[in-house]
Amino acid sequence: MGINLVMQEYEVLRNEAKCIGCKICVNQCANNVHRWDEDWQMIISDDKYCVNCHRCVVFCPTGALSIRKNANDFTFNANWENRHIKNIYRQAQSGGVLLTGMGNDRPYPVYWDKMVLNASQVTNPSIDPLREPIELKVFLGRKSALNEKDEVFKDDIFPWLELDLPVMFSAMSFGSVSLNVHKALARAAETMGTYWNAGEGGVHADLKKSMNHTIVQVASGRFGVNPAMLKEAAAVEIKIGQGAKPGIGGHLPGEKVGQEVADTRMIPVGSDAISPAPHHDIYSIEDLKQLIFAIKEATDYKKPVAVKVAAVHNIAAIASGIARAGADIIVIDGFRGGTGAAPQAIRDNVGIPIEFALAAVDQRLREEGIRNEVSIVVAGSIRNSSDIVKAVALGADAVYIGTAALIALGCHMCQKCYTGKCNWGIATQDPKLVKRLNPEIGARKLVNLLTAWQHEIKEMLGGMGINAIESLRGNRLMLRGIGLNKKELEILGIKAAGE
Amino acid sequence: MRYVIIGNSTAAIGAVEGIREIDKQGEIIIISDEVYEAYSRPLISYYLSGKIIEKNIYYRDKNFYVQNGVALHTGQSNVQINPETKIVWIEPGSEQIHYDKLLIATGGKPVVPDFLNGGYDNVFLFHSFDDVKKIDDFLKKAGKRQNVAIIGGGLVGLKAAESMFFRGQDVAVVEAGDCLLNSILDLKAGNIVENYLKRRGISIFIQNIVEEKEGEDKLERLILSDGTILECDMVIAAAGIKPNYAWLNLKNLKVDKGILVDEYLQTSIDGIYAAGDVAQAYEIISGEKKVVPILPNAYIQGRIAGANMAGENVRYRGSIAFNSIPLLGLNIVTAGLSNCDDRDSEIIEEFRGEFNYKKFILKDDVLVGTVLIGDIYRCGIYRYLIEKKIKITDFKQSILSPEISWRLLGRAEAGFKGGTY
Amino acid sequence: MKKVYVIEDFCIGCGTCMVYCAAAHSEYPKDLLKAFKLSSLKPVPRLFIEEEEGNSYSLMCRHCDEPLCVYSCISGAMFKDNRTGVVKVDKERCVGCFTCVIACPYGFIREGSENGRSLPLKCDLCKDSFDMPQCVEHCPNEALRYGEE
User: Fold this and answer.
1) Over the range C78-90, which residues count as b (16 or more CB within 10 Å of their CB) and which as e?
2) Residue A303, C-beta contacts closer than 8 angstroms, at least 6 positions apart
3) Which of A119, A163, A363, B191 is the residue whose CA sits 20 to 30 A from A457?
4) Which chain C residues touch A28 with a CB distance below 8 Å?
5) How far apart are CA B83 and CA B88, in angstroms?
């Protein structure tokens, strides 16, 4: 084997004056960092296994633990950053693709943070949401007929998703996350009058009663798809791509496919669940249209069909095609979107920011006069209520949150989802770890988060003198750019601050 | 309704509490040959060694009798009963008392070896509060360290030895059987206890009886079968207990070792119940009626008898023997047939140090007895397994592990609630 | 009566309940650090964590309606409080014979000592120092519930 050249990334600092030897850190670390040593008669920590997930830090009843980044740096070199050197060591050791979890962590510009919102002063009154109602309800789906020639839809009312606030929980499959995550998401979605997306892999039998708040996915592996599920769900989403890993598929390793996952996905226990990179039956907009209408047929035209794509270079043209293929909702997932596992090289280098993608798609659909025929949902690192307001002003109907929801459930963003040893009971199928996430607590936290955001969104809308979120949609006059160049302002379709 | 209880110890108190659960009004009369309110018999050794003050020897609060409406007649040892007419005389010639239900809870009576019957002033029993008060007086008068010979190495004998040791006396225990505590320990476990007590400074003479004695008013010297000459300033007789029913003399009362009772703890005479060390009731492991003279059993039998006297129909599910006897800081816990070493039984045992021993006795994968010396962590579970005759085939191998508990109970009984007798 | 119940699906066996239980019954019931660092005796928890096939359960005295420990107590020190239903030890009267330890069918009474005296240690629902049993109060996964059955 030779020596491992990668130095430990983190150091565990134990304040012995505060450590009471209770061993909670020992039993809480699935990475076996801490252990009780009989000879030393104390707890010994093996730093090299630490992933900085903070489980022990949070659980230590006396606050005796803290984790620090290992201070050992290589000689400064602006070109050869630490991470490049370490990755080379790793790959030279393993010969494999470097895997990672969660979203793109590179310091690309975050355009949400380069846009600011307007507020009413003197010439138009602002609204106090505590005194006057502010409507956050949105309806997702087609608002007008495909075109006059389309007999099928001529006199129909189209199926809509009714959301009490413009936030949904984005697709995370049972397999990539635990059943308790699904339970928490489903309960919170029900309570808040919104929807959660079960991801590719079906819906566990325990969650059947929440199907009217569930969006199910039909993805390239078709896992878990059956007519009953499609009919029971609130909506169906065709997943073409994912922001964290555009152009590549998914791979749930067999060791995560236990009985429950297997039953839900309808595959044998222990078999690898491989979602191919493309849908092998979709090579064109026409093919996509076939699938959309196959699903519509299967659901008696009663369920909206969404198509989810990753934000990539020519997203506007792709979105236009999706709209014309008959999708009710287009979901665009930006390049900072999360994942349970993706090659680091892909996650960090493929795709475009969601802000640009959204602006471009909204603009294009308006120009083509088909914006009303489809709703736009954006995903990929919506971090707070102001991101949502800015997204709506840029043209989104609603947003999906994934990472933010997981953080509310306890995720500490260690990016080790792919190991299956999530200490917070989120990205794991180990029954002992899954138990750590009590879905009742989880649902409560998600409800709290959305309630808090709901209040904040109303405050921001009220401040702009707008009393319904529908009135903000695409209202880019409410946005100004800061520190953006002319081209960026042009793509976003907004003025610079001061203009 | 009038209840008469003869005897005023654990079973009697259990009966009063059992009656009062059901019948708050009925009249309760307790007749006792002792002069005290109910005290805890096992606590006499703690009293003698000075570990507790007199107030705390009493089994219940001072106002127990008043609160429960009990008329207590103490110092009465000539009670007479006529079961045909349901009449009790507290003493011959006294006023007749009609009873509706009668409980005999007269406990046990110490067996005194013949050689000690000679009217010696330095021979004591170790059974009642009065006994230890006499010993206490004797020690106080003697003023100097005494050589104390204890006849009998059973529970009572060793608790007596312990208290005398705590009082700073020179203690020797003479036991006729092949080990100490042989009613509950086998040879191996008995030897551990023997070694421990010897190490602490108590002399032990196993497989010895007193062959000869010397002394006139005082028993001064005992000569044992192995030739040892024991100088003694005091002798304590702790040679055993037998159920105390001989005084009853009722012709229809069925007796064996004790008074035989049915599953409702009623004797062969209608309206007369028996509970505690005097009663011979169902024993679980043997499936036969046995005298199981332990305090918890006395209380539970008393309580059930009381409830049944008050009109309930509570079945007595039987008992097993169990004991916890700390001796000079060494925990000894036993349950079931803990001294059993017959050939059909399987023994799982473990030594973890000189005075740390665990032993499990199984028959057909059912635990029938256990001995724990030293570490007694969660031993109640083993007692429960014995009592419920649970097959432990699946986890027999891990019975020595301390982390076994829930598994045992989980399989023991679906919907296990515990806490029922 | 109100008791502590474990919700088996969410007990993660972390031992936080044990830490707070031990501290709550120590010389410094309200200060974890002092309880473990300054107490003259090592704090001992009254509850037990058992594991079976990857599942864990935090368990403690059931305060039975027919408490065998009370019935078996040789000194009358173990009693069931008529008002609260809590099964408790009167420390002054207890002689430390541990008959209760072997009587309890769950094995929920621990043998222990205090100031050199043997004493059984058991759950008292923290009635002496707190309104809420500390195991319940501090369970990080809300796996312990204090309430009626």
Assistant:
1) bbbeeeeebbbbe
2) A159, A230, A231, A233, A234, A235, A236, A295, A296
3) A363
4) 14
5) 8
Nearest to B228 by CA among B174, B190, B179: B174
Residue A103 belongs to some domain of the structure = no
Pick from B360, B362, B243: nearest CA to B292 = B243
Query: How far, in Å, CA of B190 to CA of B216, rounded?
Result: 35
**Closest chain C residue to B58, measured at CA:** C75
Residue B77: C-alpha distances to residues B10, B129, B240, B248, B322 (Å): 18, 16, 21, 11, 31
Walk me through the domains of chain C, giving residue ranges and CATH numbers. Answer: 1-60+128-149 (3.30.70), 65-122 (3.30.70.20)
Structural domain boundaries enclosing A19: 10-96
Contact B295 C99 (CB under 8 A): yes
Give the A-side interface with C, CB within 8 Å: 17-18, 20-24, 27-28, 59, 61-62, 431-432, 435-436, 438, 440-441
The answer to whether the CB atoms of C32 and A20 lie below 8 A apart is yes
ipTM of the complex, rounded to two decimals: 0.94
Element (H or E) spanning C113, and its range? strand C110-114
Q: Are residues A59 and C20, on separate chains, in Cβ contact within 8 Å?
A: no
Residue of C nearest to B296 (CA): C72
Number of neighbours of residue A200 by Cβ within 10 angstroms = 30
Q: What angle do CA B148, B151, B152 make, to 5 degrees?
A: 130
For chain A, which chains pass the contact test of at least 3 CB pairs under 8 Å? C
What's the confidence (pLDDT) of residue B404?
A: 63
Q: Is residue A492 part of a domain?
A: yes
CA dist A252 and A272 (Å) reads: 6
Rg (alpha carbons) of chain C, rounded to whole number? 15
User: In the listed set A40, A71, A96, which residue is the last one of a domain according to the structure?
Assistant: A96
Residue A460 resides in a domain: yes
Q: Where are the beta strands (DSSP E) in A301-352?
A: 305-310, 329-333, 342-343
Mean pLDDT by 10 residues, chain A (499 residues): 87 96 96 96 95 98 96 94 95 94 96 97 93 96 68 68 98 95 98 97 94 96 92 97 94 89 92 92 96 95 96 97 96 96 96 98 96 96 97 98 98 96 96 95 98 98 97 97 97 97
Whether A184 and A50 share a structural domain: no
Strand, helix or coil for residue A62 = coil
Q: Is the pLDDT of residue B416 over 80?
A: no
Residue A5 is assigned to a structural domain of this protein: no
pTM over 0.90: yes
| Cα-based distances in Å from B222 to A40, B115, B118, B203 | 56, 10, 14, 14
Mutation to test the C interface, candidates B405, B408, B413, B421, most C Cβ within 10 Å: B405
For residues C25 and B281, what is the distance between their CA atoms, to the nearest angstrom?
A: 41
How is residue A157 written in tokens? Answer: 């009312």
CA dist list (Å): B248 to A218, B6, B80, B158, B391: 89, 11, 8, 31, 42
Task: Report chain A's terminal Cα–Cα distance, integer Å.
Answer: 63
Is residue A283 domain-shared with residue A315, that is, in the same domain? yes
Give the pLDDT score at B392. Answer: 83
Q: Are residues A123 and A191 in the same domain?
A: yes
